[in-house]
Sequence to fold (707 residues):
Amino acid sequence: MNPHDETPLPHGADAPGFDASGAVAPDAAESAGLAAESLQSMAQDGVYAGAWQELQAQVPEHSVVEPAEFIQSVDPAQPAQDVVTDGLGDTQAGDSQTPVDGAIAEVALEDGASEFPAEPALLLEGAVPAEPASPAVLDNYVAPTISAAKAAADFVAQIFAEVRASDEPEAAPLSIAEVAPATDAFEASDAAQEPQGRPGEGMVPLQDKNVLVLGLGASGLAMARWCVRCGAQVTVADTREAPPQLAQLQQELPGVRFVAGAFDASLVDGQGLHAVYRSPGLSPATFASVFQAAKAIGLVTGSELSLYAAALAYLRSQHAYAPCVLAITGTNGKTTVTSLTGQLVVRAGKTVAVAGNIGPTLLDTLAGHIDAGTLPEVWVLELSSFQLDDVAGFEPTAATVLNITQDHLDWHGDIHAYASAKARIFGQTGLMVLNREDAEVMQMLPPPVRVKLQKPQHREHLTFGADMPRRPGDFGMEIVSGMPWLVRALEADETRKRSRSEAEEELHIQRLMPADALRIRGRHNATNALAALALASAAGCPLAPMLYGLREYRGEPHRVEPVALVNGVEYFDDSKGTNVGATVAALTGLGADRRIVLILGGVGKGQDFSPLTTPVARYARAVVLIGRDAPLIRAALADAGVALIDAADLPQAVDMATQRAHAGDAVLMSPACASFDMFKDYEHRAHVFCDAVRALAQDAGQSVEGV
Fold:
């Protein structure tokens, strides 16, 4: 079955391995059948083919099982514990081991990327943004699973032994109530009976108020639309005489006053304003004088995220609309985790809206759903540090900071201010989903509250990482017979007596799926998948359909994206890797399986390149340097012990990388830099890279179709 086929999967009592109630069948033979079906599906994709044949020989009674998907979906109405793969390979822990708005010219968008498309976004119930077209990627290329055969026989033997060996009852999957604050359920039937009217109608705090919006980019226009529809009198100011969105503003909102020129206190003094809202693309220095003047006379100040949070609070109090809000930020991986989380929520049978830094804007998306009467059960938001800076009143159900590395320091001033802005995503009450391998992220967890005669009370949180999980509810990875598995930690068996020290340390490790079954490549993408699982679980999504969603997710363009395999060398486009942290993650993720020839360079944005030294020394065969800051990178990597080669342009860099690569290696274009010294933006850079790879394939006489 094609993973994009919309044919409903068998569920409940109709799904193989379930009893009449739709629960997982306890019989060991049924469990072996589920393992067989999982392996057969992967074998159809060229994954674990030898393992499938071995299991067929060992379990003859399942030799005629019909093909099935990797994970059989369950009825979304079933409780979260009714999952297909729970217990498939359970062990005890001791058994093994950028801004969305470019309103002001002084601040460049993340690597010069354009902001959201001008055309209205499709606001469909349950929709996840489609993968952007990437015409430069070679047609029909499907990345081979190079490490797929690794320890396959051991893997099958392990699975077969575990589904037969234990007669102990499975530990029940962790209830979301055990790891996250309770959230009121959104009753679609009740909401449907509420007359919605115009988006924002009746929003008393803005009705007949004078509002100033700073910056006419995508977010500025969205804020102007929203405030007008809430009954406000709106003025929009921009430093540019004719920003690109001006014509659209004047056409859509003719009653809005536009002011061009430098930002200063005169925009506030004597204007009778109620509130001032800024676009996230504005640097703090640009709007500082306006905000200082506004705060001095007690005006409300904020941003699009502030307006969005206030709108949700109003809808909750007046219309009983209480959705789950899942928020994602971090230096790298935001878009991947946001898109993947949205897909997992859809697979779980819930309606979802995906918005924010990923596009479309928060307020346009909210307005569209109110107009259509399709307010979703779950919001999945990608938020940048610019959007989060100085925000107040935003309270998500669950939120994550994926990682913190140097980026946008010219905007925030230093790494501590940058991290502080990111930390605002958690609000005061939401479940914190933390990367336990990032010390800067873990420092965001507040110290426990100490109460007399009670254990210290930690804020609700769970963690994820590429190591073994440490607490109930945590997600991580376990190596089984040389093969990495995505796993989750549960409470150990409550019925067995054990010492106090055992009770504090023992966990039940639930194996979810092999990391090699993911279509997105690299260790860093495995941890991205774990973060998405943790977030979607906080929205009450059952595990089994989410695992199916993980299996079918193909990733985002220009983020460690497989391009082609030419003469045994695989080429990867990571043009979105515009900072050192992103390139370190890509190197570490791909380097476990092969040697890498790395293409680096561009505009360094004042970064320290020294963190590249260790992963380059460990994983790289050679480094090809391009762009303005190539000399700075060369100096930083002088002691890495690998060949450093200069190229005049990117096509020449691809040729030089190809000459250095051996069969089985990878050529990775992950520049760790912005692109605007040589290209229009990171997408243009990606297209040039992919065109050069296409030319290589043609010169080698290889067809790229179906590679």
About this structure: Residues 359 and 635 are 38 Å apart (CA to CA). The radius of gyration is 26 Å. Residues 210-306 form a domain with the Rossmann fold fold (CATH 3.40.50.720). The chain has four domains: 1-88, 98-103+178-194+320-556, 210-306, 561-699.
